[in-house]
Specification:
Layout (H helix, E strand, L loop, with lengths): L17 E3 L9 E2 L9 E4 L4 H9 L6 E5 L6 E5 L6 E2 L11 E3 L11 E4 L17 H6 L3 E4 L2 E3 L2 E2 L6 E3 L8 E2 L6 E4 L8 E4 L7 H6 L12 H5 L5 E4 L41 E4 L10 E5 L14 H10 L7 E5 L3 E5 L8 E6 L2 E6 L1 E3 L22 E4 L3 E5 L17 E11 L7 H11 L7 E8 L2 E12 H17 L2 H5 L8 E11 H26 L1
Antiparallel strand pairs: 1-14, 2-13, 3-5, 3-12, 4-5, 4-14, 6-11, 7-10, 8-9, 15-16, 17-24, 18-20, 18-23, 19-20, 19-25, 21-22, 26-28, 26-29, 27-28
Length: 544
């Protein structure tokens, strides 16, 4: 990606903020001690860099910030202790610790349970770096028994900021992502420290810092600190939390979906050996794509399942009003992220299940990078493939198939045949039209079979119409196909989708989509055919 918004941006006040870069000279969202060590934060879109930096200036607990000019109208993240909010009724620093578990020793909502691993099972390499949750248990062929988690009351940040809860509270590192920059405000909070007053009644920290003769500050030891006297207390440099990785629960791949994405190419991170993560595009420096997201029990799919479950998140992708959801990213009991070129257009999902009707509001994030639909080339223009994952075993990414088998994702046949009428208005007449090419294009756009797609032409006072009929559909997915066609033609210039299959002097100007009951349509066609035959017989009788 070589867009203007991807150019490195210096801090506004370079005397206060240090521009954090990696060894390759790239920046990105701030991290703690490693590229995978996320920092406690709050975030908000629609801000300039000056507004973002000023917000950090005015917050004593803000230790740094990240900014992305090309994301969400200017995306700002502030880092530091307590940025994510606070727990009202438990002594907890992060959201997932705000509550209590029925299993002794389990203080995290996502590890509330116990695992029984059969004797003789090989220990998973690096298991100590992962949280003791259901995903890790199943990875080791164990039996997971879920505990009972009692939720506490978590107070989110005020004024429209969204909290991101993490144990680390200092900034020292970045994970390289195009379009993002990291600025460190407190450049010593990742170093060892020495608190208190020396025997000579001076600052332990000042004396400690003077002990670097032949050393670096990061290498100073407890002995270098306590040499100042009994009033000096050594504070070691912060390290990443022992269990910074959660493993996603076993992934279910059902009809219509591909196997989950794994990190490839520039998405690979040797420090994260489990090949899982949120959806990304290889070759884009794991830049985040256009998306919308909702957390756990704040939204549901039309199957009634919360989006914090894989089944609920997967269904929400199919429910997307734009019809153009390409894939979803999911973290157990947490975020559901829907990806697609036009997914950000609709912030409200209206669903019905078991007699209940409700509306859910999703967070919209319009970004420069948009995933391709992969039905025709470069749709929408400038899109990128959803073919990789940002390494994080807490998340999984799954894409819809890109042929007619994708419609199996909408569930088994409901036994009610339907067809889709798709009408395209054109100017310039019918001369030179390649009907086979047109038929193939619309079948491709709908991920449907050419053999079940037909096209005819008609004319009226408004001009010429291309009348496509996609047959052999089922009630289970015909509405989804209609949303897909409308989403593409509403949000992408119609001529862009049709120009290369129309003569140079013919232009597509509009479209109309309608689901029809196949039996009713067939009855109408039979009635029309019967009336035509009867008229012909009457004519023949009159003639002879």
């Amino acid at each position: 990606m070589t867009k203007a918004e991807d150019v490195l941006r210096p801090p506004i006040n370079s005397e206060v903020y240090h521009h954090v870069l990696n060894e390759d000279g790239a920046s990105g969202p701030c991290r703690g001690s490693t590229a995978s060590d996320k920092v406690d934060n709050r975030s908000k879109g629609g801000l300039t860099q000056a507004m973002c930096e000023a917000e950090c200036d005015g917050d004593a607990n803000c230790v740094g910030y990240s900014y992305a000019a090309g994301s969400e109208g200017g995306f700002c993240l502030l880092y530091g202790p307590g940025q994510d909010g606070n727990c009202a009724d438990f002594a907890a620093d992060i959201l997932d610790h705000c509550g209590s578990c029925s299993v002794d020793g389990k203080i995290d909502k996502n590890t509330c349970g116990s695992c029984s691993i059969p004797d003789g099972t090989p220990v998973f390499a690096g298991a100590s770096s992962y949280a003791d949750n259901e995903g890790l248990c199943k990875l080791q062929q164990g039996q997971w028994t879920k505990g009972t988690w009692t939720e506490g009351t978590w107070n989110e940040p005020a004024n429209g900021w969204v909290g991101g809860s993490h144990l680390t509270t200092h900034v020292h590192f970045v994970t390289a992502v195009d379009g993002y920059d990291c600025y460190d405000k407190d450049r010593s909070d990742h170093m060892p420290m020495c608190e208190g007053t020396t025997d000579a009644n001076s600052s332990c920290q000042t004396r400690f810092a003077q002990e670097i003769d032949g050393k670096e500050l990061k290498d100073l030891t407890e002995g270098d600190c306590t040499a100042g006297g009994s009033g000096c207390t050594f504070i070691p440099a912060p390290v990443p939390p022992a269990s910074i990785f959660f493993v996603h629960s076993p992934i279910k791949t059902t009809p219509g979906w591909n196997e989950w994405n794994v990190p490839i190419g520039d998405s690979l991170n040797p420090a994260v050996p489990i090949a899982l993560g949120a959806c990304r595009s290889e070759g884009t420096m794991i830049a985040p794509p256009t998306q919308k997201d909702c957390k756990n029990e704040e939204c549901r799919g039309s199957n009634g399942e919360f989006v914090g479950t894989q089944e609920g998140c997967k269904q929400a992708c199919l429910d997307d009003p734009s019809g153009t959801c390409v894939s979803y990213s999911h973290a157990d009991g947490q975020w559901c992220v829907l990806h697609g070129p036009h997914a950000h257009v609709f912030g409200t999902h209206t669903n019905t299940f078991d007699g209940e009707v409700w509306q859910d509001t999703w967070n919209l994030r319009d970004r420069a990078l948009k995933f391709c639909l992969n039905n025709v080339e470069n749709n929408p223009p400038g899109c990128e493939q959803c073919d990789s994952a940002k390494p994080n075993p807490k998340y999984m990414c799954q894409t819809l198939k890109t042929d007619f088998t994708r419609w199996q994702a909408f569930g088994p046949s409901q036994g009610s045949p339907t067809q889709l009428s798709f009408v395209v208005s054109i100017t310039g007449g019918t001369e030179g039209l390649d009907m086979e090419l047109l038929r193939r294009r619309v079948a491709d756009l709908a991920f449907w079979k050419e053999s079940m797609t037909s096209v005819t032409t008609s004319s009226d006072e408004d001009g010429t119409k291309l009348n496509f009929m996609l047959e052999g559909l089922d009630t289970s997915f015909s509405e989804g196909m209609m949303r897909l066609m409308n989403g593409q033609f509403d949000e992408t210039n119609i001529d862009t989708l049709m120009s290369d299959v129309l003569p140079d002097d013919v232009t597509a100007t509009g479209s109309n989509t309608k689901v029809m009951n196949a039996s009713t349509s067939g009855a109408c066609m039979q009635t029309l055919a019967g009336a035509t035959i009867l008229a012909l017989i009457n004519t023949l009788i009159t003639m002879f």
